[in-house]
Structures are given as structure tokens and as C-alpha cells.
Amino acid sequence: MPNTLIDLLKLRSSTTSVIEPLLNQWMMKGEDRPYLHPKVLEYTRRSTTRWSTKGRFAASTAGGCQRKGVLLFNGVEVPRNITPRSQRYFDNGYLLHLRWHSYLLWMSEDPDIPLESLGFEQEVNIPGWWVRGTLDHKIRVGQETFVVDFKSMNPWYFSNLSKTGALAGHVRQIVIYLKAEKIRKGIILYENKATQEVQEFIIDLDRELLNKSKTHIRRMQSHVRAGTVPDIPRECKAGEYEGKLCRLKNYCYPDPEED
Ligand code: SF4
């Protein structure tokens, strides 16, 4: 029996390559093409670096810090640039998505590749949960439909994926998309930032995990209704939540130098 959430998540995700072998097959043809698919180019004209989660919970807030989820729901201003380096980090993640959307769209148009793109950057929502977000890509391979989520990852975390399995927050996020889209399977595709190696995890729509997310979201909804904000959780460690610098740090640990 799994003892911890991590054990549970490891059991619920399996590493089978669905996309990479087909991508390799397509790339080995070496056909000339623009870097970005025209549909992706069109999408870039609509997308900006501004975003807000006012009045909704992002799928990524279905776990983790509830204070953050409620603050974002309340529409607090999120500093986009903690540092220029972090801006480059976000920009790099955006560009990774454009590249992978293009790969899947080009593959979908190739009659030799049995993969069909069913759309990308699609808005999904679960009204009763106040959850609204954007899934990365939806594909069909054979008889199976998948929601695909792309993640770039630093080499250290990437080399540990075989031990850790897909990361907990990423699994929770994709399971929310599966529920919203009534699809049974998802793929989290990790790309190593340094080497462009790929590792895929197949994630099943998991009722137990979904119930945990539902409880988490219900608690955040109670705070929104009561006009309260959850306390700072012990795990926060002055804004270093889950190994990352939280962009809402200033709302919880105001700079004493500032007025
Ligand atoms: S700084 Fe900590 S408590 Fe505040 S929102 Fe971020 S993770 Fe949550």
C-alpha cells in the first residue's frame, strides 16, 4: 500500500513513450519546414506576457499553497519580473510550448504519422470548482485521446525523474484537465533544458487524486466566501515554496524597507 502522496503519484504515473517515437520518425525524414507552424504563429499574435487569475482558480492551485490560490483568485497583482533572469525563465518556457505545439501540428499533417492534433492552448473549466485554465495540447494516437502538458526541466530534476516519477503538482494539474475534458489519459512530457532529452509519463484520470484536489479547492472557496485569506503554511519557508521562489512573496513577507 502507498504510504505517502508521492508513493501514490508514482504508482499512478507510468513512463511509456507515446509521442517521442513518432516525433523521431517524423524528424528523421528531415523535411524542410518553417520553425513554427502557421497556427502557432497566429496564436503568438494573440498571446502576451500579461495574465491574471482573478475570479478563478488555476489548475495548478489545486494543490500547494492555499493562501496563494486565494490571493490569486482575489486578483492581487503578480509581479511578473522578480528578476530579469526569472523573466528569461518564463519566456523560455513559453517558447518551448510554441516549439512542441508546432511539432505536433506538423506531425498531424503527415499521413505517415499516426498522430492527430485536436487543438492546443484550449480554455477548460470546471464551473462548480471555479477552476478555469488552459490546457497545452490535445492529441489522438490510435483509439486513445490524450491531454498533453509540456514541461521544461533542469538537468538535475530530469535525471531524477526515474526515481521521483512525474512531479506531484504536475500530476494534479493534468488530472484537473482530464476531468474538465472528460478524457481518461494524459501525458506529461518533460524536456531536459540542457540536452533536449525527453521523458513522458502517462497519467490516468484518478478519482482519489481528484477528490483530494476537490477538498483543497473547497477549502479555498470557503475562504473566498468568508473574505478571508489562509494563514502562511509552515512549508512556505519565507516564500521558498516547493523549492521555488514564490512570486507572491511580498504579500506574505513585506520588505521592511518599503513604506
Ligand atoms: S510566499 Fe509562501 S505563503 Fe505566501 S503565497 Fe507564496 S507560498 Fe504561499
Give your account of this protein's structure.
This protein has 259 residues and is of the alpha+beta class. The chain has a single domain, classed as Lambda Exonuclease, Chain A. 41% of the residues lie in helices and 21% in strands. The protein has ten helices and eight strands. The chain has helices at 5-12, 19-28, 38-46, 66-73, 84-108, 155-159, 161-164, 168-181, 207-226, 249-252, and strands spanning 13-14, 115-126, 131-141, 144-153, 185-192, 198-204, 240-241, 244-245. It has a six-stranded mixed sheet with strand order 1-6-5-4-3-2, with helices on both faces. It has a two-stranded antiparallel ribbon with strand order 7-8. β2 (115-126) and β3 (131-141) form a beta hairpin. α3 (38-46) packs antiparallel against α5 (84-108). It is globular and about 60 Å long. It starts with a helix and ends in a 7-residue tail after the last helix. The relative contact order is 0.17. The model has no long low-confidence stretch (mean pLDDT 88). It binds iron/sulfur cluster (SF4). Iron/sulfur cluster is lined by residues 65, 67-68, 71, 232-233, 236, 239, 241, 246, 248-249, 252.
